[in-house]
Structure formats: C-alpha cells, structure tokens
Design goal:
By secondary structure, the protein is an alpha/beta fold. The chain has helices spanning 14-25, 43-54, 70-73, 109-112, 116-137, 173-193, 217-226, 246-257, 277-288, 312-318, 326-342, and strands spanning 35-38, 59-63, 82-86, 99-102, 140-146, 197-202, 205-206, 231-234, 240-242, 244-245, 267-269, 274-276, 294-297. The strands form four sheets. It has a seven-stranded parallel beta sheet, sandwiched between helices. The longest helix is centred in the middle third of the chain and has 22 residues, at 116-137. Bound molecules: nicotinamide-adenine-dinucleotide and uridine-5'-diphosphate (UDP). Nicotinamide-adenine-dinucleotide binds next to helix 2, helix 5 and strand 5. Keywords: Decarboxylase, Glycoprotein, Golgi apparatus, Lyase, Membrane, NAD, Signal-anchor, Transmembrane, Transmembrane helix. Its cofactor is NAD(+).
Length: 350
C-alpha cells in the first residue's frame, strides 16, 4: 500500500519515484495496492472510495475541493487505509498507486459552466496528468467519461459506436468537448504508449451526497419537493433522461477496472429506464407527499432532448446491469436529503 514514511501531501519528483520503484522491484512483497481516486471527495468519488475501502484496498483520494467536500469523506478520515490529498489535477501528480480512477471534473452544468476554461483544463490536462502517471507506474487507469459525448443524440438509445452530436462552441462544450478530448487522449495513450487505460461513459446518476444546490434535476426536485416549493421544470418537461442509482454505478466502475489490461471500452454505464423530466417531477412529489406545484421555466441552450443508454456491452463484458429501480433509489435519496435539510447546516425542514 502507500508508504506512510512518504509524505503524500508533498509532491514526489520523478527521481524519488524511480528510487521507490527500484526498491519495490527488490522487494516483491511491497507491490503497490493502493488506489488513487482523483475527484474522490465528490458525489461519485466518495462512494467509490468507500467501496474500495470495504474491498480492503488502500485509497488515496485526490481532490481540489471545487465541488467536492471534506464532509463527503468525513466518515473515512481516521481510517488508516484512507488518505486525502488536496491537489488540482491540472498540474502533474507523482504518487504511488496500483490503480487510478479519474473522476475529477465538476459534473453539474451549473458548476462546469462557472469557470468553463478551468473545466476544459481539468478534462484535458487532468487526463494527460493521470495518463502520464499510469504510464510511469505501468498501472490501469479508468476515465469517468459521460453520456454527454453523445451530445443531443440522433440515434436512440445510444450505443458506444455512435459518434455523437455535440456543439463545439456552446455553453456545454467545455464539458462535452473536454470529455471527448479526454477520451481521445485515453485511446492515444493506449495506441502510442500501451497504457492499460479504460473508459466508461456514465449516464445520469443520482443518490445520497449529491449537493442540494448543484442544479441537477434530481437534487433540485427533491429539495424543492421537501421544502414544498414549486418544482422548476425547464422547457415543457418532455425531454427524457435515464437515471442510475449510485451503488449500481460504482459496482460497474469496479468491474470495469477489474477487466484485463487489454479491455479498454468505451462502455456505457447507466440505467436504461427512461423517464420524462415532467414524470420525474410527479414521481418525486408523490414519494415525498409534497404540496409542490410544477413551474415551467425556459429550457437551457443545447439541452439534450432525450437520453437512454444501450448497455448491451456492459452486460456482456462486465456481467453488469442496474439492480435498483427508480422508485427505490429515489426513496433512499429523499431520505438522505430529509436528514441533510434537517441538519444544523441547513435547518430548512425545522
Ligand atoms: P462532483 O462534482 O460531485 O465530483 C467531481 C469531483 O472532482 C469533486 O470532488 C471536485 O472537487 C473534483 N475536482 C474538480 N476539478 C478538479 C481538479 N481540477 N482537480 C482535482 N479535483 C477536481 O461530480 P460527480 O457527479 O461525482 O462526477 C464525478 C465524475 O463522473 C465526473 O468526472 C463527471 O464528469 C462524471 N460523470 C458524472 C455523472 C453523474 O450523473 N453524476 C454523469 C456522467 C459523468
Ligand atoms: N432540469 C429541469 N429542472 C431543474 C434542473 C434540470 O427541468 O431544476 C432538466 C434539464 O433541463 C435537463 C434535465 O432536467 O433537461 C437533466 O438536467 P441535469 O442538469 O440534471 O443533467 P444533464 O442535462 O446534464 O443530463
């Protein structure tokens, strides 16, 4: 695992890393088993860190806390197998790891459009930095890509061989094109440097630890419903999404990482059950017993009209499929937000 004698919160130069690799070669028992999770203090990242610790892995969580928080990983701090490093992945990283997951990137439109240039840098420079590290260490690296690479799709549902319909100069482009360029880099490092790299394309995922104010549809609607405020539907609510519960998603990430080095993807991960935004609002009102009403607001630009993953590849390659239905997953997420909104920090439900 991570060598405690080393200061992971200071950056190790190439030489010291080489020295350590040499030391490791001469001691077979010292193989690095630690897992680096970039973006590990975010919504998905914190669930992944938890899962890896449950699987008896050592975890190095790397995050710049832009949208992530210490609160997300509070329960892990103090666990000797867990380390937290405040670092921005747009600058190179030299640490030991046996595997690397790259989840670092704000995921909600509100957050990734806050500083679009930084979003592109995080996607592109971040990908280069995790790939360079994986190349140096000769370890697997998995990229959390997104269904946004399909843009506003012309095929339905979306399979991995669809090339997408993305606006290169719009408000969402920093995220969409940034993620597309990251995929390009992943496949060029595979072809050019033989890096055992993997790409999964994640479709809308929800669950506990989404931020209450991140502007995403599930968190917005649940918070609005619990506070009996109007539910803000953008457009006519006829657009669709397919929502995957976080535990299902994490299971797929772990299975993808466990595939042999020559399996690269890309693989779609999501729950193919598709629902309109309006129906989602009605379902959340029902599950919360809320008195909220629907309020219609303008549709943001380039908002995809429909989205549903074709997960045949994930089923075949990973033996994976979602197991938690929308009602069940929403009930768990609502319970989380009820607790959160009652907590000292929010107090919104008291
Ligand atoms: P999130 O915003 O909660 O997590 C992202 C994490 O990355 C945060 O902790 C943030 O502080 C960190 N981060 C951002 N920029 C960084 C940088 N430059 N250096 C280091 N850390 C940085 O989002 P999430 O929902 O957990 O998404 C995680 C990953 O999964 C993202 O890459 C996202 O694009 C991808 N994804 C998520 C979804 C979804 O529905 N949640 C869908 C598709 C893809
Ligand atoms: N949306 C909405 N009301 C909200 C937040 C989002 O109607 O308060 C819509 C949004 O326009 C989009 C869908 O819900 O059509 C999903 O939005 P989200 O930002 O969660 O994810 P993404 O657009 O990235 O799939």
């Amino acid at each position: 695992g991570f060598d405690d004698s080393r200061k992971i919160d200071s950056f190790l130069g190439h030489d010291s890393l080489e020295t350590q690799r040499h030391a490791r070669r001469s001691n077979r028992n010292a193989a690095v088993t630690g897992v680096l999770v970039a973006g590990g203090a975010g919504f998905l990242g914190s669930h992944l860190c938890e899962r890896l610790l449950r699987d008896n892995k050592e975890v190095l969580c790397v995050d710049n806390f832009f949208t992530g928080s210490r609160r997300n990983v509070d329960q892990l701090i103090g666990n000797p197998a867990f380390k937290l490093l405040n670092h921005d992945i747009t600058t190179p990283l030299r640490v030991e790891a046996g595997e690397i997951y790259n989840l670092a990137c704000p995921a909600s439109p509100k957050h990734y459009q806050f500083d679009p240039v930084q979003t592109t840098k995080t996607n592109v420079l971040g990908a280069i930095n995790v790939l360079d590290l994986a190349r140096l260490l000769k370890v697997k690296v998995l990229q959390a890509s997104t269904s946004e690479v399909y843009g506003d799709p012309h095929t339905h549902p979306q399979a991995e061989d669809y090339w997408g319909n993305v606006n290169p100069i719009g408000a969402r482009s920093c995220y969409d094109e940034g993620k597309r360029c990251a995929e390009t880099l992943f496949f060029d490092y595979i072809r050019q440097y033989d890096v055992p790299a993997k790409v999964v394309r994640i479709f809308n995922t929800y669950g506990p630890r989404m931020q209450p104010d991140d502007g995403r549809v599930v968190s917005n609607f649940i918070v609005q419903a619990l506070c009996n405020q109007d539910i803000t539907i953008y457009g006519d609510g006829g657009q669709t999404r397919s929502f995957c519960y976080v535990d299902d998603l994490i299971e797929a990430l772990v299975r993808m990482m466990a595939t042999p080095a020559d399996i690269h993807g890309p693989v779609n991960i999501g729950n193919p059950v598709e629902i309109t935004v309006r129906h989602l609002a009605e379902l959340i009102i029902e599950l919360t017993g809320s008195s909220s009403r629907l309020e219609f607001r303008p549709l943001p630009t380039d908002d995809p009209r429909q989205r549903q993953p074709d997960i045949a590849k994930a089923r075949a390659l990973l033996g994976w499929g979602p197991s938690i239905g929308l009602r069940d997953g929403l009930a768990r997420t609502i319970a989380y937000f009820e607790d959160l909104l009652r907590s000292d920090e929010y107090g919104a439900l008291r």
